[in-house]
Design a protein that fits this description.
The protein is α/β, with parallel strands linked by helices. The chain has one domain: Rossmann fold. Helix 1 crosses helix 2. The radius of gyration is 17 Å and the shape is globular.
């Protein structure tokens, strides 16, 4: 079986609906044991988060006691900022109603390096307690970055770490999970919508090691790529 499994969707609506359903399935799987789901940031997953939040308002059998959420990365901004991935996911978090200790957010109220070490410490605790990291969503930038890993230098500094502080090209700092942490994710999945990313997608498809997203997921045995691709550019899922 190929390491990279690709699903193509003919429209953004089709991708959003499928992603909301996949997330719901992943959350329900926590009923069979302690499970963590990793959410990605950016704008791409937000419609699916909102769809799922509306659905969860009617969901009574969600295994809330055995479910954990974490984030692939976040910008070093207040958690109430519009630029915060944690803030952007609030509709979903409010619908899930998880205990606070089961939602691992980046504590950006701490100094930057301390926030990275704190996030790493809590990720390590999760792994040491035997919590399975199931579905792990990732984005892909036009420059080939994923999470907040933008450069080869970031990958080099990430060796032996589960989370690191980074300086982003947009001038903000951030905290990101690392390739070592991603190697513990059993279902890593890139979700891509919108234009301007074709070169990065093609690099991912051919597993070009010069693409940061490819290098960051080398330790993953299997990767999914879900991409919005109108029918004239490819076949639908």
């Amino acid at each position: 079986m190929n390491r990279l499994q690709i699903r193509r969707f003919p429209s953004r609506d089709a991708l959003d609906a499928a992603l909301a359903a996949r997330l719901e399935q992943a959350l329900l799987e926590a009923g069979s044991g302690h499970l963590a789901v990793m959410l990605s940031g950016g704008h791409t997953p937000l419609p699916a988060y909102r769809q799922l939040a509306a659905r969860l308002g009617r969901q009574s059998d969600l295994p809330r006691q055995t479910l954990h959420l974490l984030f692939s990365d976040d910008r070093y901004v207040p958690s109430s900022s519009e630029a915060s991935n944690f803030h952007a996911s609030q509709p979903l978090l409010e619908a899930l109603r998880l205990p606070q200790e089961q939602v691992l957010r980046v504590r950006t109220e701490l100094p930057l390096e301390e926030a990275a070490l704190d996030y790493e410490h809590r990720l390590r605790q999760l792994l040491e307690r035997g919590v399975k990291i199931g579905l792990g969503m990732l984005g892909l930038g036009a420059d080939g970055h994923t999470a907040s890993l933008f450069r080869g230098e970031d990958l080099h500094r990430a060796r032996g770490r589960l989370a690191i502080a980074v300086q982003r090209p947009d001038g903000l700092a951030g905290i990101s999970v690392t390739p070592e942490f991603l190697s513990h994710v059993t279902e890593p999945m890139f979700v891509i919508a919108g234009g301007g990313k074709q070169a990065a997608i093609e690099g991912l498809e051919r597993e070009d090691p010069s693409i940061v997203a490819v290098a960051a997921t080398q330790g993953c045995a299997r990767i999914e790529l879900w991409v919005e691709e109108p029918a004239e550019h490819g076949s639908a899922a």
